[in-house]
Specification:
The complex is a heterodimer of chains A (113) and B (114). Chain A contains no helices and 12 strands. By secondary structure, chain A is an all-beta fold. In chain A, strands 2, 5, 6, 10, 11 and 12 form a 6-stranded mixed beta sheet that branches. A 4-stranded antiparallel beta sheet of chain A has the order 3-9-8-7, with no helix packed on it. In chain A, strands 1-4 form a two-stranded antiparallel ribbon. In chain A, strand 10 and strand 11 form a beta hairpin. Chain A is globular, with a radius of gyration of 14 Å. Chain B contains no helices and 11 strands. The chains are: A mainly beta (113), B mainly beta (114). The interface between A and B is medium-sized, with 21 and 27 residues.
Chain lengths: 113, 114
């Protein structure tokens, strides 16, 4: 079955540091890939998405590229801010599954001054 | 903006009680979902519904049931709450058309069963 594997957290960075959160997936067919973010005390919200191989999703300075050859969708940001402190979830969805998504376990990011 | 609301942010119930968690969305979405979120386990799908009165089991349906009598409302029911159901419960909705299946989430209900 489908699965998503994320790097374990927490990830602790100083402000303005470079961020990478690794995500790899196992799925049949050609899934769409997503990054969701959960700020403290809130529900998840979509950060970015990519629907086919080699697509790059981007939003709020975050980027991720759909790499089919390595089955990966790593999240990157060039310069993190304290306000980026949150839990980040990688997810995949497949056609014909009634919009169901398979989520990774989440990676907590803490950014300090 | 899409809005998904959940009836309570925090709930404390006793073992054996019947618990209702309510979710309402205002964007006329066909699909609605209930997840539970636990540390180290991420989000796990309990049930989802793709239309009024239609439902399908997710990955961990045991001990739960759902009801969808109106398109905008999706209820999660714990028939007899147990301590291992203490968790954060998240509701989400999405439309069927438009590709990429973005899900919109509510703020969550933190349920404690004592």
């Amino acid at each position: 079955g489908d699965s998503v594997t994320q790097m374990e957290g927490p990830v602790t960075l100083s402000e303005e540091a470079f961020l990478t959160i690794n995500c790899t997936y196992t799925a049949t067919g050609y899934p769409s890939l997503f990054w969701y973010v959960q700020y403290p005390g809130e529900g998840l919200q979509l950060l970015l998405k990519a629907t086919k191989a080699d697509d790059k999703g981007s939003n709020k300075g975050f980027e991720a590229t759909y790499r089919k050859e390595t089955t990966s969708f790593h999240l990157e940001k060039g310069s993190v801010q304290v306000s980026d402190s949150a839990v980040y979830f990688c997810a995949l969805g497949r056609t014909g599954t009634a919009s169901k998504l398979t989520f990774g376990t989440g990676t907590r990011l803490q950014v300090t001054l | 903006d899409v809005k998904v609301t959940q009836s309570s942010r925090y709930l404390v119930k006793r073992t054996g009680e019947k618990v209702f968690l309510e979710c309402v969305q205002d964007m006329d979405h066909e699909n609605m979902f209930w997840y539970r979120q636990d540390p180290g386990l991420g989000l796990r799908l309990i049930y989802f519904s793709y239309d009024v009165k239609m439902k399908e089991k997710g990955d961990i349906p045991e001990g739960y049931s759902v009801s969808r009598e109106k398109k905008e409302r999706f209820s999660l029911i714990l028939e007899s709450a147990s301590t291992n159901q203490t968790s954060m419960y998240l509701c989400a909705s999405s439309e069927t058309s438009g590709g990429a299946w973005e899900q919109y989430f509510g703020p969550g209900t933190r349920l404690t069963v004592t």
